[in-house]
């Protein structure tokens, strides 16, 4: 039985929730790593261009369609045209998969908040610090090395899922209450860490590396590929989230202005995280250790920096806890946003109670996520994450842009974006050019780049790490097939439910 649709308690609640969804672990660890890889300031420049060309318009597009249709991703795409519904379900299915393993990462972070106490006895011992997380999660590094499931990690996992469900149990109503804390706390903690990092000797070397551009790298296609990918992944677009959040908006909301606030808040927090990482790593003489692998940087490299911050163990413990608490508050917003995007689409489609749907989905996701807590979890997460992000999400982005830009009138969406805008409106030349041309072309280029990279690696992702072909098939290609077949599977389920009395929502844009 359906219930009255949730609504945001205020404009600020929506903006904070959207910022919280957009700002996640990728801002804290992936962004600094890519900046280190691509000449610091040069990457910032390309990232800003990608944000303007692709990020801002697509963010506004999803929010506007969600508000107009009052549906999740799948229902919103169905409202544009019934034939487009499978695209929405692909986004929902991919968000489902990401939620399953993202919660495991969240659990790792929570566990490290507690394990930071061990830094007290590791002052100056970078080898021990680098091994703390690996020994805690008891990883084998092999896809078949299940090993044992650490009880402490299982406890952290249950806490992670408990907090995710608690935040979204009542949809927009409960999210509105928690985002005022979960968005501001990581900003405060990042500022604390930035002040600490900037006061260290050698910090300015790190800051200079972060901000001073190396323009010689602008001719390298890799910097453009990584910048486009970072914008795409960071804003939570093409993940069903912004459709759901848009569907909770009132008609008098100002999407044009709020979209800019969300996008540039996301970028500002990325830059702040970059200052924290580069100043701290410069201060301890480890600038060359920043990795494009966020997990390696956060759990292996940064602990080495923590134990060399001071000669006083308990002070290092405090900064370790602050760092991982910051990551935890970044993780929880993104995690519950993903689950909310899935829950909204399913409850809308089948006229289900939203709260019960959210609980059932959370239980299913948690059960499926247990594999990522085992000794083989890190290897499987690496494979699944690669395919969901490097292939699935990009293909979904291409399909959304082509569907809305070429099979639906972008002018209609633009009018919805600018519905309540007075002082500033989203320009048609900017929005139409992005959705119809720039974004799909950039995403196709990114997809081709990733396919070529996979071919060069022999067609097996992670072969150098010992990942076999069968693991790529199970954790990669099979999941990709299911993601894009999900819309047709749902169609069969809906047809069966229709015979038992289900009446689907037939609302359309007009």
Report the strand count. 0
The CATH architecture term is Orthogonal Bundle
Estimate percent helicity: over 70%
Count of all domains: 1
Summarize the structure.
This protein is mainly α and 510 residues long.
What does this structure look like?
The protein has a single domain (17-498), classed as Orthogonal Bundle (Hydantoin permease). The protein is 73% helix and 0% strand. It contains 20 helices and no strands. The longest helix is centred in the middle third of the chain and has 38 residues, at 313-350. The mean pLDDT is 95.
Supply the key terms:
510 residues; 20 helices; Hydantoin permease; single chain; mainly alpha
Question: Which SSEs are present, and which pair or pack?
Answer:
Layout (H helix, E strand, L loop, with lengths): L10 H12 L2 H13 L3 H29 L3 H8 L4 H31 L10 H12 L13 H18 L3 H11 L1 H15 L4 H9 L9 H14 L6 H7 L7 H29 L10 H13 L6 H38 L3 H15 L8 H30 L3 H8 L10 H29 L12 H30 L12
Helix pairs in contact: 1-8, 1-12, 1-13, 1-15, 2-11, 2-13, 2-14, 3-4, 3-11, 3-12, 3-13, 3-18, 3-19, 4-5, 5-7, 5-15, 5-17, 5-20, 6-14, 7-15, 7-16, 9-13, 9-15, 10-13, 12-15, 15-16, 17-19, 17-20
